[in-house]
C-alpha cells in the first residue's frame, strides 16, 4: 500500500488500494472473490472443503494474517480500546498508539 494512492475528487486524503486481502474460509464465496478481482485486489482466502482449490492461493501471505489477528487480540486487552470510549478518531488513534507502545515495552 506504499505507492497505491488513488486520486480523490473533492476534499480528503487519497485512498489507498490494497494489493491483496486476507480472510478466513467464511469469506470464500465465489461472488466475494469475483468482487475483489474486479477491483484488482488479489484474494488470499483458503477455499472451503466443498469448493475447488484456487491455484493462486498464497500460503505465506495467509500466515501473516495470523500475526495481525494476534496483535488485535492483545490490543483488545485494554478496555478503553475494546469498547472505544473516544468519540473522535484522533483520540482513539492516540489510545491505540499508546496501547501499541505498552505492548512493545512489555
From TrEMBL:
Lineage summary: Bacteria, Pseudomonadati, Pseudomonadota, Alphaproteobacteria, Hyphomicrobiales
Name of this protein: Transposase
Keyword Acyltransferase: no
Source organism per UniProt: Methylobacterium gossipiicola
TM annotation in the entry: 89-105
InterPro entries the record matches: Tnp_DDE_dom
Presence of the UniProt keyword Lipid metabolism in the record: no
Keywords: Membrane, Transmembrane, Transmembrane helix
Basic residues composition bias: residue spans: 10-20
Bias (Basic and acidic residues) ranges: 47-62
Domain (Transposase DDE) ranges: 24-105
Domain of life assignment: Bacteria
Region (Disordered): 1-62
